[in-house]
């Protein structure tokens, strides 16, 4: 199993920046992909950014050029740097680990952190 805990959310004005942090522990060697998802009220959860073990990244079109995902391997943390924030970025942001365990593939989630972009 992998345990994830997000932090860093909050209220920010449009055009501002935030950096989300996700600490992970447990069966770290089983992790294939780390990702950030978000879910706005009444909407489905969507992928914001993903980072594979080889360093490949993937971003939602809506955040390309504004958000950046990175991993601090020694700290067992993954970050999401968010710049030029817009009101439509308001959502609960979740950290995710896609793993491959002895039982097969699995997915683990953090508890989420609220990001609100408003003036």
The helix content is under 10%
Head-to-tail CA distance between termini: 40 Å
Uncertain runs are: none
User: Given the helix and strand composition, which structural class is it?
Assistant: mainly beta
Mean pLDDT, all residues: 95
Shape annotation: globular
Tell me the number of strands.
Answer: 11
Radius of gyration: 14 Å
Percentage beta strand: over 45%
Largest sheet: 7 strands, mixed
How would you spell out the order of helices and strands?
EEEEEEEEEEE
Counting DSSP H or I runs of 4 or more residues, the number of helices is 0
Report a brief summary of the structure:
This protein is mainly β and 119 residues long.
Give a structural overview.
The chain has 119 residues and is mostly beta strands. The chain contains no helices and 11 strands. The protein has strands at residues 2-7, 10-12, 18-26, 31-39, 46-52, 57-59, 67-72, 77-82, 91-101, 104-109, 113-117. The strands form 2 sheets. Strands 2, 4, 5, 6, 9, 10 and 11 form a 7-stranded mixed sheet that branches. It has a 4-stranded antiparallel sheet with strand order 1-3-8-7, with no helix packed on it. The mean pLDDT is 95.
Main attributes of the structure:
119 residues; mainly beta; 7-stranded mixed β-sheet; 4-stranded antiparallel β-sheet; 60% strand
